[in-house]
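Dear colleague,

Following up on Tuesday's group meeting, I ran the structure prediction for the two-component complex that the binding team flagged. I've pasted the input sequences exactly as they went in, so you can double-check that nothing got truncated or mislabelled along the way. The structure tokens for the whole assembly follow below. Feel free to forward this to whoever is handling the docking comparison.

Inputs:
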Amino acid sequence: MTVLVFTLVVWAVSTLAGFLGSLTGLGGGVIIIPVLSLALGVDIKYAIGASLVSVIATSSGAAAAYVREGYSNIRIGLFLEIATTIGAVVGAFLAAYTSTHIIAIIFGLVLMQAAWQSVFNATPENSPPIESDAWGKRLRLGGDFPVDGRRQEYGVRNVRTGFSLMFGAGTLSGLLGIGSGAVKVIAMDRAMKIPFKVSTTTSNFMIGVTAAASAGVYLSRGYVDPRVAMPVMLGVLGGAFLGTKALVNARVRTLRIVFAAVIVLLAIEMIVNGVTGKV
Amino acid sequence: MNDQRLESIIGNLLRAGVLISAVIVLAGGVMYLAQNASAQASYHAFVDEQASLRSVQGIVRSAAHFDSRGLIQFGLLLLIATPVARVIMAVVGFYLERDRMYAIVSLIVLAVLVFSLLRAT
């Protein structure tokens, strides 16, 4: 394969990854890593570096638009980011002492269940807005977001559960490298009762910050190869832009199904990696 | 200063940062393809990247010499900086909003971020 063909193929795949990543709040790594490493035979280290670039590109590319549309909630994002980043440090420390392949398999199974819940056990889209509970009020986490041209207010509940889950999300990302976006969306959606579009867009904000924290390590170890990362970055940015446009008009039901599909993909990846001992 | 205004400033800043980094990566990419388009792509073995593309100083230096790979890497550096810039903007914004609680929250996030970036280099 020539460099030109490689670049074009990676660019096209990355556009899809950016589209799905920004739509679901999961980042593009779920697609980028297996396509690069399995289909195109790129060394896993370059694939991981490219995936890191893709997460930041999804996050920043989509966020520029989301923030202006008024979906993501910067208070929720920053508050929960404390738990995630501390969790990531703990996870990186634990990685030396735990057998990560068993964790990967368990995480995969948990994700399967979460995908099911997210589609078949969701709060109806037009149920009345909920009130913040005591912690949600104290931390002023509630906000409003656009629905059919109007701003709809929402409250935030179960802050302590959400905060603990975010700590878990960070620990997992420190242990396994990917998958923290999934836990972030699930924690906000399921535990904290935050509207789905706010959950995915706020997750988008958070994954960029989390990824930037580990970018230094990957860059200095030489994982970020400009020849691989270039088409990834350009493709993902374009895809994230399109995903943002699609999110605004998409029905929540559709988004949940796309989200569940990507989560199942991630779960299969996790389980396969765990079984083959690649994690 | 209120949340909405803060968010629109952060949004504009992000948009500018992302656009500039994309233009630089695209320029480096076009240069790289112009020189190597028909070469064989082989990335199946991890070669230790040349040191000049692994450190901030090295990247800036090779980008200043209009080396194609250095330019791409420099654009990627700018992209990596955008989330950091976002958190810095949040610290400043919440301070201007006189929202002490969230100024401190974003300061903690910034501290962890800077800590982990510095630890790597």
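The radius of gyration of chain B is 18 Å.

Cheers,
M.
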